[in-house]
Design a protein that fits this description.
This protein is mainly α. The chain contains 8 helices and 2 strands, in the order αααααβαβαα. It has a two-stranded antiparallel ribbon. Helix 3 (25-34) packs across helix 4 (39-50) and helix 4 packs parallel to helix 8.
Length: 110
């Protein structure tokens, strides 16, 4: 899209933030389930994360492209010779919910 068109549309960052649906624990669970976590796994992750993080912080920790918590995958070292980091939401969609749960416990319950 043309930058001039964006500026003239009157829709800026704050407008998009105001229109964003509110984040709460239910919406975080729904996001996790949509990515492949079971209802029980999603509930457990939200419970662990909720001890120290607000719903907005949970969303950032799980899925923000630049600010999400990197989760090291030890299996990648076996395959590629180097430990790769997953974004939590990508790890969940790859079926590595246990990896995310263990990292959340390690980081947030310490």
């Amino acid at each position: 899209m043309n930058p001039t068109a964006i500026a003239s549309s009157g829709v800026g960052f704050l407008d998009r933030v105001k229109k964003r649906p509110p984040r709460d624990e239910a919406s975080i669970r729904q996001m996790l389930e949509a990515e492949g976590a079971t209802a029980e796994e999603a509930e457990e992750l939200v419970r662990i994360l909720g001890r120290r993080l607000s719903p907005d912080e949970m969303h950032t920790w799980l899925s923000h492209p630049d600010k999400a918590h990197g989760i090291p995958d030890p299996e990648s070292a076996e395959k590629f010779g180097v430990v790769l980091n997953w974004t939590p939401i990508n790890a969940i969609s790859a079926g590595k919910v246990g990896l995310v749960r263990d990292e959340a416990k390690r980081v947030l319950e310490a």
